[in-house]
Amino acid sequence: MTDLTGKQSLIAVVQMTATSNKLENFAITKKHIEEASSLGAKVVFLPEACDYIADSHAQSLELAENMDGLLMKSYSELAVKNGIWISVGGFHNKCSSIDKMYNTHVIINSDGQIAGRYDKAHLFDVEIPEKKIKLKESDNTEKGGSIASPVDSPVGKIGLGICYDVRFPEFSLSLARMGADIITYPSAFTVTTGLAHWESLLRARAIETQCFVVAAAQTGIHNSKRSSYGHAMVIDPWGTVIAQCREGTSLALAAVDLEYLRKVRREMPVFTHRRQDVYRLPPCVSRILPLPPDEVTFSFGQVTIKGWAVFYQSRHSLAFVNRKCVVPGHVLVMPLKPTRRIPDMQPDELSDLFLTAQRVQRGMELFHGVSSSNVAVQDGPDAGQSIQHVHVHILPRRPKDFKENDQIYDELNNHDKGPNVDWRQEEDMKKEASELRLFFATL
């Protein structure tokens, strides 16, 4: 076991050559997880596509699992058995209702629980015919829609990225601004781009964010069409490579020293010196937050929303089931802060509201098996607003659900007005909210 000071924590980074054989791939990662635990590591980081690298798009879709599948259960059992946190750096996460997958990074804690999840936001689409290069992740992968909040772990707050995300400094700076101590880029870099850019990109991200950067990696020949660069490594906040895997399947250890991180930030205070008056990062929003207890209430204009009605909550917004639906699946998204009109909202609140609305729209379409929605805001009384609190209507649409398509706007304007509104029963609303909570937890 490596000798550490009281302020240091040991981590392990894995390098492997995945193939289309899921059982063999799992056996390799299992061996490294057990080795990392025996050496005293608190967290072990696995590379992107640690579940498999398929021989074709069709095979990739066929082999994919969802979050409740055998793979995640097996990793949860390994985490408990070995008393270690596991970063499953990227697995093929089957979408519920579309013929695609998410590339999902999952953090499992030592109790076997999912502590964090991130769906890859930047998809690698490159086609260079003269070099016979064609890599189009978007052919079978759905892009993620948000940055996940850094995960509290025994080694610090871990920010989740995947592979191609490393080329986007706004992404890593957003994670640092959200409190990350460590930023992860589990990867399957091509040999060509790896030789040119791999270490330079990782060191740049570490230097500019003043975070530890951990990059588990695929290496070697996966099949006749695919090879990866390898060189899994860990970089400290000063930009120094402090650990790197040898060639082939291997594991490397590194000490994460959060006191050193604070020293670097104190002596080179770039975040303090940023000119927010001259430029600024766009507001970043986090993934779903823990849902409120059933008995909690939220102000919504002249009325209150009970906690049991909420099925999605972010930093500044929440989504909840509706007392009176224009169409099945008609739900609402509102800012947590009581705000009458959009012009009254702060930039962070506004960004969070509409990014939350986007994620809720996508989820509701998947849940109801549709591909169209109306998304509407009635901003002020003359626009039809009856509740004096900004809110976004999400209305999943089906073919011919109205005789004239635009009739929905008349219905939206009048559906909750008048003395004889047929409000939904509370039990019906609770049932819908419960089903949506379970569904959104798997997205």
From TrEMBL:
Signal peptide: none annotated. The keyword Nucleotide-binding applies. Residues 296-404 form the HIT domain. Pfam families: CN_hydrolase (PF00795), HIT (PF01230). Residues 9-258 form the CN hydrolase domain. Its cofactor is Mn(2+). It catalyses: P(1),P(3)-bis(5'-adenosyl) triphosphate + H2O = AMP + ADP + 2 H(+). Gene3D superfamilies: Carbon-nitrogen hydrolase, HIT-like. One of its GO terms (molecular function) is bis(5'-adenosyl)-triphosphatase activity. A motif (Histidine triad motif) lies at residues 389-393. Cleaves A-5'-PPP-5'A to yield AMP and ADP. In the N-terminal section; belongs to the UPF0012 family. This is Nitrilase and fragile histidine triad fusion protein NitFhit. It comes from Daphnia galeata.
